[in-house]
Amino acid sequence: MAWEELSSLQTEARNWPQLERILMANVAGVAGEARLQQALPELDWSRLERIRSLPGAAGVSNGYRVPEQLGVDRWCALIGAWALEQRACLVVTAGTATTVDSLDASGRFLGGLILPGVDLMKGALAKGTAGLPWAQGQHVPFPNATDDAITTGCLEAQAGAIERAFARLPGAECCLLSGGAAPLLEPLLRLPVRPVHDLVLEGLRRLAQDL
Could you tell me the CATH superfamily of domain 85-121+132-199? Predict the structure, then answer.
């Protein structure tokens, strides 16, 4: 859930029945959790279950060197992807950061990449150089203006990383693509793409059935 969606969540919460459980996958720290609880005081937060990354759950085994150090958002996205596909696939979330995670045909998470997201890349160029703007350009095959050159370069870098990860995943069959920048990346990718809205929440839904 993006923070800008919090007001809509407040509206929806008024119509919820009495909740039996609350599952949370939080990467915003203690402050983020406190903000959410303050925004939804009508919920019984004593029912809160904080999801953590585990060595295995819901058919997915966690191949991270230290499984507990895998971001819980990535963990939930992997579980959501496996629930939807159950085959070798790339799991991409394109948000503030872009994560590119490899899930093999047995449900094992092999490892993944973390890149700056598209806007972070643009911001780094704008802040770290003397003459480059915060680009508002478009992706074009042969950029001949600075804003288009930056936008195209950032998107091509993301697409290239995703395509390289897909190429080295044994038996890769599809790429599940989620996140705010997903619509920008999808038309650039030369591989089978399945757009999925809120893949992390799909993983939470699946965990709620198992735990």
Answer: ATPase, nucleotide binding domain (3.30.420.40)
**Nearest-angstrom CA–CA distance, 141 and 190:** 15
* Calpha distance 148→138 (Å, rounded): 5
**71 to 54, 78, 160, 163: CA distances (angstroms):** 10, 11, 23, 22
CATH 3.30.420.40 residue spans of the chain:
85-121+132-199
pLDDT tens digit sequence for 68-120:
999 999 999 999 999 999 999 999 999 999 999 999 999 999 999 999 999 99
Bridge partner residues of 109 (DSSP): 62, 103
pTM for the whole structure: 0.89
DSSP classification of residue 5: G
Q: Give me the active site residues, please.
A: 73
Mean pLDDT, range 181-198, rounded to an integer: 96
